[in-house]
Structures are given as structure tokens and as C-alpha cells.
């Protein structure tokens, strides 16, 4: 408990921001559920059904609701949909979803519509059926004959819906309008995030992790839109809905382990996940390539193998996320560990629901019928998206905090405590860069404060420190304006590097002017002056070249130091003359 309180305190700003965003999303969902819902007066759910399942052995089963099952693709399903006379209205249609079958609708013996005969791809999700209702059919019934292509029901059959033909496009999202809006926004946002992360992923491992996380979210969302039938809201094409499911499933197959490989600290687990992920991603791209070429390739050839591999990869990813191998777990690990427990529970319930949906009929207890009507996959997917984005956000915050701390430590390591400008280590690092990059067009100004010891002895060390800071400020402002760099070489010595070298005298004059302004502002009692020497790379290099040597920063500093010393001697000599005159 104390650990959780500590985590919350440490990340309180992010937590407040996160829950503010979450509250906004929930308010938006409530708003959409009220104003974005398909009005109930625009459709009618047809619950009074009579269903016959004719088996190949000649036996027959009858059901009085939408809950039924079959046991073989040799079975024939006949659904009788009675229509009351008071419902009579022009241009109405009966809409429902059914899995991978040939579906024919009749009024009496007249064929009204046929689906599934010319599907190019195997359907693993919902196939939308829209049956136009003739005016003569009211008071009688529509007969639907279904010839399944599978030996079992992949999901439960929902009651058909009667609505205007022009509004039938909204059938696929009835009861899940807000979910549709959220999933479409998630699909678009995750795709844009994939593009952005891909752009930055070349040199940043956290961007690569973000790319695979967004790819996984994109894949899950795309799969669900196709599997739930909501994709028909975007396009009425049956093949597109099926293809979106396949792409989502195959892409999830590779993106999940690749994302998990960035979360584990175990070397062998990381290698396994990345190797498997990249191999499966290559197979996904190859399958997609073959699919769009006129090769006749169909995903269904490998569907069961893909589903088996998907289960293995998802379990591997979940285990690696639950047990990342870190000695000290961070906030991201705690979010994933807690969240995945709920994901696992919902996943088991969804799998249990799918298994039961192929068996439960109207003859089962009411609570079991209620259980299979709840689609846990929608909640599971939204929870997974919530968990992964939250965990990744926590991780980025931890990384940014760590980088800021490291940057602060680097600044402290290369900064002079008294003046705030660079110290000797900073100067040496910058000098090494100039030498290694063979930079030639620069000058060095060597500055030494006059009478620092006198100031310390007669005015106190506080005044001595103030003198050092005044000179440092004057140097920094002048050098920063020119684009060079400077630092305290130690004691009363400063070095300034000026680019290009012909700016050195301008900068020297600016330092003098800056110091005069600071003196007027501070109104100090102690003397303020300095000596300096200037040396340029060009002149030193030319001189050393004649002597058979090579110029470097240390050689240039030596020349500047010598000239500074000569000016200091001149300064002392002039002051001595003035003292003699006064004496």
C-alpha cells in the first residue's frame, strides 16, 4: 500500500492529467450514447422466429428464438420470419449477420436475395444480410435458407432487425454506436501514431517500442471492426470486412511479440520474441503481397495455423509483460501487471462465451442465454488499449525524468559552481572536439583577473567571489552573442573560444563594455580589471608549420597565455609608476 501511495505521489501530475482525459472520454461516450444513438423508432427487433435445422440424416430440430445451433456444414437451416400487417411500409428491409454461409431469402417461392455464393474470401467474421421486404409479405412471412460452410457456429445468432432500406447502413452499429465512434477514432489515431513513431524510430528505441505498440492497437481495432460487423458502416463490401479481419489478425500475430520484446529485461526472451515477431511480420507482408496479386492465394489456407500461432505469441507476450525480469519494477510494470489480470479474466470469459455460443439454444437456462449475449471482447480490447497506452505513458515519464536528472548531473559536472559557466572539464571536452574535428577558423582569448589576491586580502573573500562572478558574467554575455564558448580555467583564469577568428577583437571590446556596465550597476568598492591575450589558429598554425609542427588548441592557448602575461606585466609596471608619482 505504501509503495502504491509513493508511486501516486511521484506521478501525481500525470495521474491528474490522465484521469482528466479519461473523464473527458467518458463524458464524450455518454454524449454520443444519448445524441448519437440510432433512434429506436427507426427499427424493430424481430424476436418471434421459428427456426428449423435439418440434419443430413433426415432428423430435424426446431427452435422458437434466435438461439439455435447446428453440427455440420451438411445441415440446412430454415428461418421463418413472420411480419405483422400493421408493420406494412414501403422500402423496408430485414437485416442480420451470419457467419460464412450461403444465405437465400424467399417470399413464398420467390427468391428475394442471395448472399455468400460469390464471396472471394473465407469469412471469419459477420456477413451482413439485407433482405428487401415486398409489401405483399406483411401478414405472412419471409423464409431464409442458410447453407453453412463450417461444421459449427462461430458465434451466436442475433435477432433480425426490420428498418427502412435507406437506414440499413446503420444496422451494423445498432446498440454499439459509441463503441463504433471510439474504435474508428482509435483506428485513425493509432495509424497516425504509427507513422509518427516510424519517422522517429531510426535512432530512438522508445519510438520503436511506441511504433509496435500502436501497430498492435491498430491490428486489434481493425480485427474487431471486421469481426463485429461494424466495418460495414464504412463500406458495404463483404470482402473488405473479411480482409480487415485477416489483416488485423496476421498483423497482431507479429506486432504483439515485437512490442513485448521491448518490455522484457530477459535477453533470451527478448531474442525469442524479436526473432519470432520479425519472421511472422515477414510472413504477414508476404501473405498480403500474394493476396493482392492474381495468385489465387487465400488467407483461409493458413487460418487455423495462424490462429494457433497467434495464441502462442499472445501468451508469450503476456507472460513476458507479467514477468519482465526487472529487479525493481517501475510504474509501467505495475500498470501492466494489474491490467493484464483483468484482460486475462475477460479473455477467458470471451473464449468461454464463444465455445458456449455454438451449443446454447433457447432450451438452456435463461442466465446462460444472457451470458452468451454479452460480448466481452469489446471491453477486453478497450481495456487492453487503455493499459498499453497508460503503461507506455508512465514509461516515457520515467525515462524523461531519468534523462532530466542525468542531464542535470552532466550540467553540474561541466559547470563551475561559483560562476555557472563551464569548468575545466567542460573546456577540455570542447577543446578535444575542436582538435578531433580539425576546426581551424577560431581564436582564443585568455583572460586573467587583476588584483584578485589583493581583493581577497583587503575586502574579504566574498568580494573576491563577487569580482570573479562579475568578470564571468561579462565574458559569458559577450561570447554567447558571438556563438563561441567560454569557461573558467581555474582560480582567476578564463578561456573564451571565438568563431570565426576575426571576431576576437570585437568580442574583447564587448567584454570590456559589459564589465563597465556591471561595475556601474554593482557600485563595488574594490578594483575591477583584467588582463588578456589573444591568439588565432591561423597565425599559430602558420608559425608552427614553418617550424615543422602542427597547431592544436593547447598550442594556441600557450600563445594567448604568454600575451596575457605580457599585458599583465605592463599593467603592474604602469600601476607601479603611478604609485611612485603619488608617493
Précis, in short:
The chain has 583 residues and is an alpha+beta fold. The chain has 16 helices and 14 strands. The protein starts with a helix and ends with a helix.
Q: Biggest sheet, in brief?
A: 6 strands, antiparallel
Low-pLDDT stretches: none
Distance between the termini: 80 Å
The value of Rg in angstroms is 39 Å
Query: What's the helical proportion of residues?
Result: 55-70%
**What structural category arises from helix and sheet content?**
alpha+beta
Task: Label this structure with key terms.
single chain; 583 residues; alpha+beta; four-stranded antiparallel beta sheet; 16 helices
Protein model, in words:
The radius of gyration is 39 Å and the shape is elongated. It contains 16 helices and 14 strands. The strands form 3 sheets. A 6-stranded antiparallel beta sheet has the order 3-2-4-9-6-7, with no helix packed on it. Helix 4 runs antiparallel to helix 5, helix 4 (205-227) runs antiparallel to helix 10 and helix 5 packs parallel to helix 7 (303-322). The termini are far apart. The chain has helices spanning 2-10, 12-35, 177-200, 205-227, 238-261, 267-292, 303-322, 331-357, 366-373, 376-413, 424-436, 452-459, 461-482, 504-522, 537-547, 553-582; strands at 43-45, 50-54, 60-63, 76-82, 92-99, 101-107, 110-115, 126-133, 141-148, 161-164, 443-449, 485-490, 493-498, 530-536. It is 56% helix and 15% strand. With 583 residues, it is α+β, with helices and mostly antiparallel strands. The mean pLDDT is 80.
Ordered list of secondary-structure elements with their pairings:
Blueprint: H1 2-10, H2 12-35, E1 43-45, E2 50-54, E3 60-63, E4 76-82, E5 92-99, E6 101-107, E7 110-115, E8 126-133, E9 141-148, E10 161-164, H3 177-200, H4 205-227, H5 238-261, H6 267-292, H7 303-322, H8 331-357, H9 366-373, H10 376-413, H11 424-436, E11 443-449, H12 452-459, H13 461-482, E12 485-490, E13 493-498, H14 504-522, E14 530-536, H15 537-547, H16 553-582
Antiparallel strand pairs: 1-10, 2-3, 2-4, 4-9, 5-8, 5-10, 6-7, 6-9, 11-13, 11-14, 12-13
Helix pairs in contact: 2-3, 3-4, 4-5, 4-10, 5-6, 5-7, 6-7, 8-10, 12-13, 13-14
